[in-house]
Amino acid sequence: MESANNFDLWTGAGRAMSPRQPKSEEETDAMNFRPLHDRVLVKRIEAEEKTAGGIIIPDSAKEKPQEGEVVAAGTGLRSDDGKITPLDVKAGDKILFGKWSGTEVKVDGQDLIIMKESDILGIVG
């Protein structure tokens, strides 16, 4: 039998949670997600809609861009001896990543990608 405090993840049955209300304006702007360890949260930088010759590329012919901006980064990877190695990227960095890198997620209504730092090919600029 299910108690009133339990929430069944499989069926969605259980006590309904009320949405958390932000406490301040700064908190509404802050992302409600913090990547762990060597993971980074990336927002894709959309590709140009036109070619250099002026041809408009339809959405169906576009490939997903492999360039993005780091939105948030984890603290780093913990080694066997317990020391944390900080990441080479930080929030705001423009990066290139592989075509099949990461997992697409929706955070605060934005389509983002979470990936390991090793999926990043390099920092642009």
TrEMBL record:
<dbReference type="GO" id="GO:0051082">
    <property type="term" value="F:unfolded protein binding"/>
</dbReference>
<dbReference type="GO" id="GO:0051087">
    <property type="term" value="F:protein-folding chaperone binding"/>
</dbReference>
<dbReference type="InterPro" id="IPR037124">
    <property type="entry name" value="Chaperonin_GroES_sf"/>
</dbReference>
<dbReference type="InterPro" id="IPR020818">
    <property type="entry name" value="Chaperonin_GroES"/>
</dbReference>
<dbReference type="InterPro" id="IPR018369">
    <property type="entry name" value="Chaprnonin_Cpn10_CS"/>
</dbReference>
<dbReference type="Pfam" id="PF00166">
    <property type="entry name" value="Cpn10"/>
</dbReference>
<comment type="subunit">
    <text>Heptamer of 7 subunits arranged in a ring. Interacts with the chaperonin GroEL.</text>
</comment>
<comment type="similarity">
    <text>Belongs to the GroES chaperonin family.</text>
</comment>
<feature type="region of interest" description="Disordered">
    <location>
        <begin position="1"/>
        <end position="32"/>
    </location>
</feature>
<dbReference type="GO" id="GO:0005737">
    <property type="term" value="C:cytoplasm"/>
</dbReference>
<dbReference type="GO" id="GO:0044183">
    <property type="term" value="F:protein folding chaperone"/>
</dbReference>
<dbReference type="GO" id="GO:0005524">
    <property type="term" value="F:ATP binding"/>
</dbReference>
<dbReference type="GO" id="GO:0046872">
    <property type="term" value="F:metal ion binding"/>
</dbReference>
<dbReference type="InterPro" id="IPR011032">
    <property type="entry name" value="GroES-like_sf"/>
</dbReference>
<protein>
    <recommendedName>
        <fullName>Co-chaperonin GroES</fullName>
    </recommendedName>
</protein>
<keyword id="KW-0143">Chaperone</keyword>
<comment type="function">
    <text>Together with the chaperonin GroEL, plays an essential role in assisting protein folding. The GroEL-GroES system forms a nano-cage that allows encapsulation of the non-native substrate proteins and provides a physical environment optimized to promote and accelerate protein folding. GroES binds to the apical surface of the GroEL ring, thereby capping the opening of the GroEL channel.</text>
</comment>
<keyword id="KW-0963">Cytoplasm</keyword>
